[in-house]
Amino acid sequence: MLGPETAERLLNAVVGVPGIRRLMVNGPGLPKTVPYGPARGKPNPNTNRKTITVGGSDVDLRVQVGMVTIEVTDEATIEEIRTVCDRIFTQFPYQLQVGQFMKTQATLVDYAKYGPDADETMIGLVDPKRTDVPVMIQH
């Protein structure tokens, strides 16, 4: 799991690489309040829940960054991303996997959330339980 500072450095470096179509960050949730148990509803202090700046946009970390999934337009972009990761991850290892990890066609959840004319960049990024929209950073 990455701390907020390392996640910010990584995301800013990766966002600057040309050829990235979409990027998704996954990890365990960082809720503002305790969701269950005896402390349910009480504030959940966590030092990893911060606002970071990525590509000039402020992003509230809702998850502790554990996996970054990137959709690229061509193979050359993968090597540029590997170079960026080699520069950032000097103290600990990382794993870069190549394959198709994002949906390319709208699912029933996408249709229910965004309708028949959903933005292609949003397909597969829908969490049906979330009321707020994903952060979109345009470069």
UniProtKB/TrEMBL annotation:
Q: Give GO terms for biological process.
A: methanogenesis
Q: Which UniProt keywords apply?
A: Methanogenesis
Pfam families, from UniProt? Answer: MCR_D (PF02505)
Q: Which domain of life is it from?
A: Archaea
NCBIfam families xrefs: met_CoM_red_D
Q: What is this protein called?
A: Methyl-coenzyme M reductase operon protein D
